Amino acid sequence: MIFLFLKLGRALSILIVCALLIGASTLALREFSLKNHSIEQIFGESVTFHATVISDPAWSKPSVRGAQFHSPSMTFLARAQEIQSTSQKWKIRAPIRVMSRGSVSLIPGDEFEGEGKILKSKERKVLALVILNSAPVKIESAGKLMQVTTGIRHRFSALSQSIEGDSGALIPGLVLGDTSRESPQFISEMRRVGLTHLTAVSGENFAIIAATMLWLSQWIFRKRRVRIIVTALVLIGFIFLVRPSPSVLRASVMTAVLLMAKARGSESEPLASLGFAIGTLVLLDPFQALDAGFALSVAATAGILLLSPKISIILQSRGLPKAVADFLAIPISATALCTPVIVAISGQISLVSIPANLLVTLVVAPITIGGFIAALLPPQLDQIAHLLLVLINPCAEWIVWVAHQGAKFSVLSLPQNAFGLCLVILTLLSLLLRIWKVSVAILGIIGGLLLFASASWPGSHWSVVNCDVGQGDAMVINLGNHRAIVIDTGPDPELMRRCLQDLKINLIPLLVLTHFHADHVEGLSGILRTARVESAWVSNSQQPTGEYARTLTLLGAIPTSVVHQGQRVSFQTAVGSGEIQVMWPRDRIDSFDSLPGDGSAINNSSVALLITLGKLSLFTTGDIEPPAQAALLADINLPHVAIFKVPHHGSAYQDWDLVDALDPVLAIISVGADNSYGHPSPKTLSALQKRGIAVLRTDRDGALSIDQSLRIRVQTRAWWKISWG
Prior knowledge:
- The chain crosses the membrane at residues 195-216, 228-245, 292-315, 327-346, 358-377, 384-404, 416-433, 440-457.
- It is found in: Cell membrane.
- It contains 24 helices and 28 strands.
- The chain is of the alpha/beta class.
- The protein folds into 5 domains: 2-35; 38-140, CATH 2.40.50.140; 146-413, no CATH class; 418-449; 457-716, Metallo-beta-lactamase, Chain A (4-Layer Sandwich).
- Strands 12, 13, 14, 15, 16, 17, 18, 26 and 27 form a 9-stranded mixed β-sheet that branches. Strands 19-20-21-22-23-24-25 form a 7-stranded mixed β-sheet. The chain has a 5-stranded mixed beta barrel with strand order 1-5-6-8-7.
- The longest helix is centred in the N-terminal third of the chain and has 26 residues, at 10-35.
- The protein is globular, with a radius of gyration of 29 Å.
């Protein structure tokens, strides 16, 4: 690193260090003022407040917290002017996050009063989180311009509903920044392929609109400065249409840099203007420096400034007219510099990222321009607007197809920490400055770590793997020939998909869902995207009803059976014969005393299994609690086993007579790091250790692999971890 700074030159190195110090200091001061406000003394209390809406209320994505599936809630940013508790009142001007369980009919610029509980927020850029107890009351409407643009957005959203699928969801996101219809799976695929910058409005869209207006206005206005002014006015309207959020404002500032460069001619210093714009934005809002979108906006603008003229010349030399070449050069140049930034942000390097961006580059402009025109058409011309959407839909479908196909390829995943960031920065700098020895050394380090990781995990003779899926359960039993039995799916589809992909599993003869709590079933879609499931076993309890209905819908036509004590199935594996016996639940739903937690009745209906696999034996338990554990032990004479999957993520509620009867050698605790439940319980860990049982836990060891001889391999969450898959 020191060598690279010397290579840059002393003056430039000093300038970079000073800029970093100023930016860090500004950010630290702003964050200190938010996190050390006296209002923190009333966190957890009910308050009334007066605020102005900053961002459009939008439905959040569904999430899993603990065992519970949380439906979407409506959330938005607001600027609080007054907050009052039962004992004190604050006159402030600070951003807050507002959340509502019901729909909120407010738009940016509306002033409102609300009542709710104030909580500490995990967002660094807001003072607090307020969860509304009732609908907010609007006391003053937003300005006329904001009302008009809101009407346009709503009408465009309604029009786009007629375009189904991911392409129909992409169009309003790419045109107006409305990402409400984009599914988590689609966003994940776009991120994996390096196309995430196309899921919403970015600096590239502003540049396309500006280039289109400059080209069209040349037929009306002779003077360049007049054309620049007209284009600037159109862009101001576009800002209100897509909403003046921080991301949009920074994109507009970057576009203003391009317009100034265009107005002053080729002899100006556009990079100096870009530097001034970056510095001004960071000083006004230091949190911009932490936003991935800010880096993408800067990269896109720099790419257009530096590369667009050269790319245009190359395209013209291939026979394209100058106007067409200039137009196409904008998205191509923006993509060229955005790609390495996307790699640095996501920590993923896809071999298809650059080809994918090149393949979709030419269709971004038609979607942006066609969609913008459709949005501006009056209601009387809705049929023409719909026709425009139909015409640009093939372009959107092309982007979706590229994302779907590209997501099938493996990616190189770098650790998302200081080590991974340094690898990316050093690689880019060494390539930029042509320090080839450093580049080769970095590639050697990445290759060596990748080879070491792939050779050590999961081992060529693995029999059982407990996936690292956070606060949830997911176990894989190896049947050989890329086949496996899977027990539970964890809460996260992407983590489940990665686990099966690492294990190279593509066929699941039997999927067991021990019960329908979200931390055991919400990862199901990740399995269905990765492997073919031939049959499924489920619990006799249909609670919680929401998770039960979603799970059965996803399983669709897959043969699904409710299982009970006494059922068994035999199978053949690469290490010999195997058998699964259902040890719990009984053929009826038993009633036990409830314990604290997320639902004892549901936990106690969990499917518990005794599995033999060659010489290996294990006992899996789902989340059964002591009453059900004791009843199981009373019903069946249990054999000793090698592996015991500790119930309920190692909670304090265990029946130690069951553990003593099983007399395991090894205990597995599937648990998420820093979970709010305090799992695993120190009491449980102590009791296991006193019995001489070796304990493995996914929050510390990562995913766990065990072979027939009980040899253990762990996929440790090491700071240096690099993976391919």
